[in-house]
Amino acid sequence: QVQLVESGGGLVQAGGSRRLSCATSGSIFGIYAMGWYRQAPGKERELVAFLPDGGFAVYADSVKGRFTISRDIAKNTLYLQMNSLKPEDTAIYYCNAIRGGRPVFDSWGQGTQVTVSS
């Protein structure tokens, strides 16, 4: 079972930046597309950034132009660079592999909390 470990969250002021990391225990890059999800209090988990294997990244409209997803294959690590953060970006952020538009692994990591103050 692949493990997903997210890190890099914290408290940041509106307009600030944060870089999240997702370390994976196996070499899943090159097999699956990868994505970053987030879940705000009282809301469903949503996909905010998607990186197809060998393709171009796709972003939710709410983060387009502000967030950048990338990966380091040698380090088995996925990243999410978040700029111009807004209070509505406050959520727990998770990563997962994606296949057929759905998350691959049922066992999610613990996520990393991002809190944006106004």
Commentary on this structure:
The protein has 118 residues and is mainly β. Helices cover 0% and strands 50% of the residues. Strands 2, 4, 5, 6, 9, 10 and 11 form a seven-stranded mixed β-sheet that branches. A hairpin with a 2-residue loop joins β9 and β10. The mean pLDDT is 94.
What fraction of residues sit in β-strands?
Answer: over 45%
Largest sheet: 7 strands, mixed
Number of helices: 0
Shape: globular
Total beta-strand segments: 11
Average pLDDT score:
94
Order of helices and strands: EEEEEEEEEEE
Q: How is the secondary structure organized here?
A:
Blueprint: E1 4-7, E2 10-13, E3 18-24, E4 33-39, E5 46-51, E6 58-59, E7 67-72, E8 77-82, E9 91-99, E10 102-103, E11 112-117
Parallel strand pairs: 2-11
Antiparallel strand pairs: 1-3, 3-8, 4-5, 4-9, 5-6, 7-8, 9-10, 9-11
Features:
118 residues; mainly beta; seven-stranded mixed sheet; four-stranded antiparallel sheet; 11 strands; 50% strand
Question: Nutshell version of this structure?
Answer:
By secondary structure, the protein is mainly β. Helix content is 0%, strand content 50%.
